[in-house]
Amino acid sequence: MVFPIAKAYTQAMRLFYALTFDEQTLSRLSSIQDSLVPLLEKGRKSAKHNLHLTLSFLGNQEPRLLPLFKEIVAALPNTPINLQFSHLGRFTKSGGDVIWLGIQRNVELLHLQSMLVEHLIKSRVPISDTSFAAHVTLFRNARIAELPSFSPFSCTSQAIRLMLSHQVENVLVYTPLASNFLLEN
């Protein structure tokens, strides 16, 4: 699904860096979401095209910093990372929990995220989320009595992207502004 974005940005942009996945992995993640729907008392499903693993949340940033953020994406290694989705979890929130799919501890992923944070700090970009919990958000504002088990599976990440979070016709959209595709050597 492709959404239009403005050519010239004049206001602060809500940005984050993410690992994205191929269509097969997105379909697998979506199937897990579908299997949870009957168990939920309530919850808002993350759209399939928005499923990702956040590496660093930048928050609202000035458009003049876009070239710097794009340079940082390009400076990161472009080696694929094998990820093992191993467990479901939740972040407890008063209005409803965030239900997520967790990644088994992965040294390459931790190293990549650490390099990204180092680049941001060296570039004097203010960041507040230096703690990192590797996960893909499946539902927000959710209530579920108990998280079920599921069959772990592996995938290879597709790209590291600088993403813009914005609304298009009242739909939350994550639009890539820069990409570093992860390639086999």
Automatic annotation (TrEMBL):
InterPro entries (UniProt xref): Cyclic_Pdiesterase, RNA_CPDase
Motif segment (HXTX 1): 52-55
Keyword annotations: Hydrolase
Record field: catalytic activity: a 3'-end 2',3'-cyclophospho-ribonucleotide-RNA + H2O = a 3'-end 2'-phospho-ribonucleotide-RNA + H(+)
Gene3D superfamilies: Cyclic phosphodiesterase
The protein's enzyme class: hydrolase
Residues annotated as the enzyme's active site: H52 (proton donor), H135 (proton acceptor)
Segments carrying motif HXTX 2: 135-138
Keyword Hydrolase: yes
Function: Hydrolyzes RNA 2',3'-cyclic phosphodiester to an RNA 2'-phosphomonoester.
Entry similarity comment: Belongs to the 2H phosphoesterase superfamily. ThpR family.
Protein name listed in UniProt: RNA 2',3'-cyclic phosphodiesterase
Organism: Sphaerochaeta associata
Gene expressing this chain: thpR
